[in-house]
Structure formats: C-alpha cells, structure tokens
Design a protein that fits this description.
- The protein is built from 5 helices and 16 strands.
Length: 288
C-alpha cells in the first residue's frame, strides 16, 4: 500500500469517466442526458468530465477532495446527493511539444467517491460534481500499481460502499469486481487519450473539452481519475445523503478479504483495521 496526503494532490487535475459500469447511468436517472452522444461501441463509456482544474477561474478551480468529510451544498435547491463508489486512479501525465496529453501512466488506485448532486436542468456533468471544498473523496491508503488491466492491477480488487446512518449500516452500492468495468486497462487509457484529444464542448451534450482544461491548468503532471461508479443497491438508488450520515467506499483485495469480512468490519466500525483494503470514510456535515 502507498500513503498519499490529500494536500499533495492540489496540483493534480481531476476528471471522471461517465457510463463505464453497465446500468449506473440508468439508476442515476442520467442516461437520457447522453442520447446525443455517439459511442464507438455499445459498451463504451459516454465521455469524460472535469471536476477539478488547478488554477481554474470557474468553480472548477476549487479543490474539492477530502479523505474524511463531505459537506452538503449551501444551496437548498437540491440536496439529492448520492455516493458514487469508484476506483480512483492516480496517473502520471505526459505531453507532446504542443501540450497535448499523449500518455497516462497509472501509479496507484484506491477508494474514490465521485459524490454527485442529482440536479435537474444541469447542462454539464461538472455542474453536479464540484460545489465547493469537501465535495469529493479519495482514500489516503492506495494500492500501488503499474497498470489497470483486468488481468493485472485490477484483477482481484473489488468495490464496496455503505451508508452508516445512526446505528444502522446499509449497503449502498453493489459489491462489484473492478475488472467488470466496461473499459479498463490499455483499452480505457487509449479511449481517454482519444477523448482528451477529440472530445469537444457541445450544447447538445453534457460534455466539455477536457483536453483544453489540461492546457489551461499549465500541463499538470498528475491526474486523479474516477473511472466509473458501480450500480446501486435498492437502498442506494432511493436514499440520499443527509447531515450525520457517514459515507464509506472500500476498494479491497478479494484474494485477501471476503465480502463478509468487509461487512463485519463496517458493522463494527473497524473498517480501517482491514488489511488489503483502501478505505474512504466521510462524515456528512452541513455548510458552516
């Protein structure tokens, strides 16, 4: 495992992959947002979206990542917030002489919460993703990897998530193998590089020119990427975060731990005692 300080990630651009786990967009009520997006294959993700741009002059310039808290938006227009349990990947980024991204080299993976507001009328995905500090989550203990292949770095990893509410614990996302992402490994990296080169902003889609944001940010050397949220349990699909809740995302090594081991630890507030796991626990609070 590798320990990372969240404060050291303020120079890393943040973006996500939309629609990389079958069924998630439909459960989140967002599949119709992508009806005008043409995909290269039936199982291809729908696009990439930004959630943090170092030095950016819009709301995307606010660093949103923490490892222990999740602050609700100050606006009361919508508090329909859901955990989005994902594998987060820390990439080293390479550029050509013209400032275009030409390589994404994975160095570590871990538990990531791409927490989202279900905000009707939002024209871009990013408008649902960064509402200020402590609106995203990334674990501080990560698995060191040199690839994110389904037969390599992701082979035995699984993604679990829970909502702790008072004395009760609920499974929020369906415990899923990371290798079941629609795109992962070199296929996902090649696809992301293509999207960084060719995805454009359009009034007809919720997508943006993320490649241009890399140049705006001064060619950051690192990127934190959420590669897609799992499907929800029935509870997760229909229950939203509230003050006092605790959001938990756990990426664990299925060769070391069983699902029952993880559930027992969470039920006994011992999740950080798990070996072979990247654990993210965020307490939900109101805006000060």
């Amino acid at each position: 495992m590798r320990d990372v300080l969240i404060s050291e990630l303020t120079d890393a651009i943040g973006f996500g992959v939309a629609g990389n786990f079958a069924g998630h967009l439909e459960q989140a009520g967002e599949a119709s947002d992508f009806r005008s997006v043409r995909s290269e294959a039936a199982d291809a993700p729908k696009g990439i979206f930004p959630w943090y741009v170092p030095g950016g002059e819009t709301f995307l310039g606010t660093f949103p990542v923490t490892s222990d808290s999740l602050v609700l938006p100050s606006s009361q227009e919508s508090l329909r917030l859901q955990i989005e349990p994902e594998v987060g990947v820390l990439f080293a980024v390479g550029y050509d002489a013209d400032g275009r991204v030409v390589s994404l080299r994975p160095t570590a993976v871990g538990a990531f919460n791409d927490c989202s507001i279900r905000r009707p009328g939002a024209t871009k995905i990013s408008e649902k993703k960064n509402w200020g500090p402590a609106s995203k989550g990334f674990a501080t203990a990560l698995f060191e990897v040199s690839d994110i292949d389904p037969a390599g770095g992701l082979r035995t990893l699984r993604i679990a998530s829970f909502l702790r509410r008072g004395s009760e614990v609920h499974e929020y996302g369906i415990d899923s193998p990371a290798a079941e992402y629609s795109y992962c490994g070199d296929r996902l990296i090649s696809w992301m590089l293509d999207r960084l080169a060719n995805q454009v902003a359009s009034a007809q889609t919720p997508l943006e020119d993320v490649g241009a944001l890399f140049r705006e940010a001064g060619r950051p050397e690192r990127a934190v990427v959420g590669i897609g949220a799992t499907r929800y349990t029935d509870f997760g699909e229909h229950n939203f975060l509230d003050v006092g809740d605790e959001s938990l995302v756990i990426v664990y090594d299925g060769a070391v731990l069983g699902r029952s081991d993880v559930m027992f630890a969470v039920a006994n507030r011992a999740e950080f005692e798990l070996s072979g796991a990247s654990v993210l626990a965020q307490q939900v609070t109101a805006t000060a």
